[in-house]
Design a protein that fits this description.
globular
């Protein structure tokens, strides 16, 4: 762990790193998924499922490919207080990837829920602060190298973009040759978006 003279700062960083833990991300994701299922919003169920599951697989594959040792002693996977005999490699940061993917989804969700500029802006800034805090905490507590964090952010953004491209209704229409000047097509897209939002 890096030397930190301020107990307050150390406490903040330790708290931030908990936000990116498997337990925290799982509870928030499960709550969202349960809500979407109750409201039968299959679009968001599929989106969150693919985004989350794919992110886990991508992170695991990258760790196995690079097998980069952590700055400190090698640690093992921990889940809800249980340790598993599976080496936890450093590259890329799992905490950071989980946090970026979840809060990127929450930003997207806020844009679906409201058209109010300030609500969207505050949601974006709040999510960004949390992401940066978790990312910084992983370096400060000595769990990762800075390059692990940068790679995690980059991989998460790419994966989120891929999910958005293939799942988002807007992009789905564009890939089918959707013309925004086509009044009938525009009305159909608007009705689909309103129906989707009505389930939220």
């Amino acid at each position: 762990m890096q030397t930190i003279n301020s107990p307050f700062l150390l406490g903040l960083m330790q708290g931030a790193t908990i936000i990116g833990s498997v337990e925290f991300i799982f509870v928030i994701s499960a709550a969202l998924m349960f809500t979407f299922l109750l409201r039968r919003n299959w679009y968001l169920v599929i989106f969150l499922s693919v985004l989350s599951a794919g992110g886990i697989v991508l992170n695991y594959v990258l760790k196995i490919l690079f097998q980069r040792a952590r700055p400190g002693e090698m640690t093992y996977i921990e889940l809800f207080g249980y340790s598993f005999e599976l080496a936890s490699y450093s590259f890329p940061s799992g905490h950071t990837m989980r946090t970026v993917l979840l809060f990127a989804f929450l930003i997207y969700l806020s844009f679906l829920l409201t058209k109010n500029y300030w609500v969207r802006f505050v949601s974006f800034v709040a999510a960004l602060v949390i992401i940066l805090s978790v990312a910084a905490s992983r370096v400060i507590v000595g769990a990762h190298y800075p390059s692990d964090i940068l790679a995690a952010v980059a991989a998460s953004i790419v994966w989120a973009g891929v999910c958005w491209y293939f799942i988002s209704d807007d992009f789905r229409h564009k890939r089918k040759g959707f013309n925004p000047k086509d009044t009938e097509a525009s009305q159909q897209l608007e009705e689909e978006q309103k129906e989707r939002q009505s389930y939220l």
